[in-house]
Amino acid sequence: MSPERTVTANGVRTYVAEHGDGEPLLLLHGGFETADMLPFLTEHLAARWNVIAPERRGHGRTPDGEGQITYQLMARDTLAVMDALHIESADLVGYSDGANVGLLLALAHPERIRQLVLISGNFHANGMTEAFRRGMRMAKADSFEPSFAEAYRALSPDGLDHWPEVFAKLQRMMLEEPTLRANDLESIEAPTLVLAGDRDYVTVAHTVEMFEAIPNARLCIVPGGSHGLLTEQPALTTRVILDFLAEAGS
Q: What's the total number of domains in the chain?
């Protein structure tokens, strides 16, 4: 298989990285990130699965489109990637914004998601800490996390000058979305792991509420884990994810 390709998904020429062989597993990156930013987890997943890591619109090598970016729109984009690659169903591991996209996809199309891992995700915008929301409201494109801006400018087909526009779209989305209620999560059918840090941008109370609302869910709160728990504690978090997928899959 080619380690990378582009497919037209929901009208957007979407970059897709692939690693490993086996049953398909969708790996959805975080907001402002790229498919390259979780190398440890990707490597270990690829030892067992065909890891398919699309870069969502306005991220990495995938161009932005007209109008707002929303979690619902990116969930439809992800479904279109599955259709373009002829993937009938897959396991899904989503981090941060990728978890929110995966949650929406599992709700709208339960038949397409076999197992679900939600890492540092939130089902409502008010589940984020007030410190995160305050910081995001005050954030500016030219002073936001430099590594995100550098990756965007190095990879985006939209050119250097588009970063402030896509930043503003994602900033609005993170402050206003998603808008699910806890009882909306009761229809999730896939066995689900809810994973977050106890010092995450998502409050522990919101993470627990998500876990309690999803049938057949498991919860892991990582001691000392921030929103960057996957890179801070890669061996621990990867083992939790692999063990869950192996046990739930059997």
A: 1
CA 71 to CA 118: how far, in whole Å? 14
How does pLDDT run along the chain (250 residues), one tens digit per residue?
457 799 999 999 999 999 999 999 999 999 999 999 999 999 999 999 999 999 999 999 999 999 999 999 999 999 999 999 999 999 999 999 999 999 999 999 999 999 999 999 999 999 999 999 999 999 999 989 998 999 999 999 999 899 999 999 999 999 999 999 999 999 999 999 999 999 999 999 999 999 999 999 999 999 999 999 999 999 999 999 999 999 977 7
Does this model's pTM top 0.70?
yes
Plot region of 43 (φ>0 → left; ψ -120 to 50 → alpha; else → beta):
alpha
**Six-digit token string for 47:** 């030892």
- Please calculate the CA angle 111-112-113 and round it to the nearest 5 degrees: 100
Q: Print the domain residue range for 135.
A: 4-249
CATH number at residue 176: 3.40.50.1820
